[in-house]
Design goal:
CATH architecture of chain B: Orthogonal Bundle
Strand order of the largest sheet of chain B: 1-2
Largest sheet of chain A: 6 strands, mixed
Order of helices and strands of chain B: HHHHHEHHHHEHHHHH
CATH architecture of the domain at 1-76 and 194-237 in chain A: 3-Layer(aba) Sandwich
Structural class of chain B: mainly alpha
Oligomer: heterodimer
Low-confidence stretches of chain A: none
CATH superfamily of the domain at 1-76 and 194-237 in chain A: P-loop containing nucleotide triphosphate hydrolases
CATH class of the domain at 1-76 and 194-237 in chain A: Alpha Beta
Shape of chain A: globular
Number of helices of chain B: 14
Order of helices and strands of chain A: EEEHEEHEHHHHEHEHEEHH
Mean pLDDT of chain A: 92
Radius of gyration of chain A: 17 Å
Strand content of chain A: 25-35%
Strand order of the largest sheet of chain A: 6-7-8-3-9-10
Strand content of chain B: under 5%
Helix content of chain A: 25-40%
Largest interface: A-B, 27 and 17 residues
Shape of chain B: globular
Number of domains of chain B: 1
Chain lengths: ~240, ~325
């Protein structure tokens, strides 16, 4: 079942075209990766899906509903949560306040408490630091907090924008392991990454963007085996 | 009612009785009590500005504009229609809140420096409109306002303001405002309707500034449309108190408002050097306490209890 379908999406920053006719679709239950070099339009795509940016043409359908023109703050309630690039935790608020804000749109505050426990089980380090200001956490912990905060909204689809950015290799592996756990427990994940090897390794399908256009879509294993991709992203020829 | 609210109520009642008691015994002159009323008015102004600047992070420097709306509209009601004071205050505050809404909707699309300049501009527009409205005295000023403001009613309204704003900040709505202050895009992506909450905080702040305005005009009994009374300089005065108390710190706001109302009065003996000394004090405080008088902490029961226990432990250790 398709949970997210992006059809012929075009986005402009002023006169500059950032995305041109981008189309792909994400199946319920999978991890889907958007791959691309700097400036390819990965983040633009995510931001357009979550309505932080407006498209000039095209259509985004989430869970059978056209979301191309709804305001961004209504999306979490529909089950779509965007963990933005660069983590963007609330630096002066405590870790638990950050997490509670993730459940902001929910009415069932009591269940949100159970979910807090769930997030703490997933990221024990956050539990240790629950009363600490989020700004005082390390980069990796902030990334965990950003993901945990996203999970507090109980999303059907989680958009993750470069969760590996600026993290040590060991931490990146830990984060990717957790992304797999989250996915196994039923959340569909749309992942944006530059780390092609790791991202393709955990996802079922992927799509490659180049200067705002889709140049390839398909099974992650096929893309990983493609000589051109190997050359550009993995530096092997 | 739990224990804390009971203790707080008791302490607040004691302060009130103390002021009246000291006045009855002639230890406080009516001059002193008047300064305390002014301190209460300033508390309302600073705490309400704190909601906008400190908690929601929308830097406004036009707060005196809302004070002016409340001051003039309530005075107009009591002078022309002999409206009861509290009704006039309420109408003035609602009016200020509506003006806040009208100004907030376009201005809050801006951020940072741009928002500050826009609020400054709107504040001046309000002042110039008043300056040119003959019904409220125009440039001559508005005189003959009855003396309705007492220590009692300004004290009560200051408590009410602190109570409402504190509860707002601690609610889900308040957490949404804090999230906007910290990171607006992240807040939106979690489902916080940022325009709504920014406007809500802005008009709620304006509403309370309107109450302070009503108290202010019935305290001075004469309103002049000058920069120092309802214009830019007044806004800056409020802002100084806010920053000195610490952005996002209600206890700090209250203490700074009281201290900065009393200090200039204490310095009256220095005549023309008064404002120089006042400014030096401000500079020193900002150098040594950059996070505000309380240094980012706020006074709460948990804190008080901790420090009492700390003192006890220290004593028994000896």
């Amino acid at each position: 079942m398709t949970i997210l379908s992006v059809e012929n999406l075009s986005v402009h920053y002023g006169v500059i075209q950032a995305l041109e006719d981008v189309s792909f679709s994400v199946q319920s239950g999978e991890i889907y990766t958007l791959l691309g070099t700097n400036g390819a339009g990965k983040t633009t795509t995510l931001r357009t899906i979550s309505r932080l940016l407006s498209s000039t043409s095209g259509r985004v359908e989430f869970d059978g509903k056209d979301i191309s023109s709804v305001p961004s703050y209504t999306l979490p309630a529909l089950g779509l949560c965007h963990v933005p690039e660069g983590r963007r935790v609330f630096p002066q608020l405590s870790v638990s306040d950050n997490l509670y804000l993730g459940a902001y749109h929910r009415k069932d505050k009591r269940e949100a408490k159970d979910d807090l426990q769930y997030v703490f089980d997933l990221f024990p380090r956050l539990k240790e630091r629950r009363n600490q200001e989020a700004g005082s956490l390390s980069g990796g912990e902030q990334q965990m907090l950003a993901i945990g905060r996203g999970l507090m909204g109980r999303p059907k689809l989680l958009l993750l924008d470069e969760p590996s950015m600026g993290l040590a290799p060991l931490l990146v592996e830990e984060i990717f392991g957790i992304i797999q756990t989250i996915n196994r427990e039923g959340t569909t994940v749309l992942l944006v990454e530059q780390n092609a090897h790791l991202a393709l390794g955990i996802s079922q399908r992927a799509c490659v963007l180049e200067t705002g256009r889709v140049v390839m879509t398909g099974e992650a294993t096929d893309i990983l085996a493609n000589p051109r991709i190997r050359e550009i992203y993995l530096g092997v020829s | 009612m739990n224990r804390r609210t009971m203790y707080t109520g008791l302490a607040l009642a004691l302060i009130y009785l103390l002021v009246h008691g000291l006045q009855a015994f002639g230890l406080l002159l009516s001059y002193h009590v008047q300064i305390l009323s002014l301190a209460c008015i300033n508390i309302i102004l600073v705490v309400s500005l704190n909601l906008i600047n400190g908690f929601t992070g929308q830097f406004s420097i036009g707060h005196a504009g809302f004070l002016a709306v409340g001051a003039y509209s309530s005075a107009y009601l009591t002078v022309t229609f002999h409206t009861p004071f509290f009704v006039a205050l309420l109408v003035g505050a609602i009016f200020a809140g509506i003006v806040g809404l009208i100004i907030g909707l376009p201005a809050l699309r801006l951020k940072g420096d741009y928002l500050a300049i826009a609020t400054l501009g709107f504040g001046e527009i309000i002042r110039v409109i008043i300056l040119n409205t003959q019904a409220v005295g125009g440039a001559r000023g508005f005189s003959g306002i009855p003396n309705y403001t007492t220590f009692g009613n300004s004290y009560l309204l200051a408590i009410l303001t602190v109570f409402v704003i504190r509860n707002f900040v601690n609610s889900d709505h308040g957490r949404a405002c804090l999230a906007i202050r910290e990171d607006e895009i992240a807040a939106e992506s979690l489902g916080v309707h940022s325009t709504y909450f920014k406007t809500l905080a802005f008009s709620l702040g304006a509403f309370f500034a309107g109450i302070a305005g009503g108290l202010f005009s019935h305290y001075l009994q004469y309103m002049a449309p000058t920069s120092g009374q309802i214009g830019f300089m007044k806004s800056i005065d409020i802002l100084i108190m806010l920053v000195l108390g610490g952005l996002g710190n209600i206890t700090g706001s209250v203490i700074a408002a009281v201290v900065l109302t009393i200090v200039p009065e204490l310095l009256r003996g220095f005549a023309e050097y008064r404002m120089v000394i006042y400014s030096i004090i401000l500079i020193l405080v900002m150098i040594y306490r950059p996070d505000g008088l309380l240094g980012g902490r706020s006074l709460g029961y948990a804190r008080l209890k901790n420090s009492i226990e700390g003192v006890k432990a220290h004593a028994s250790h000896k």
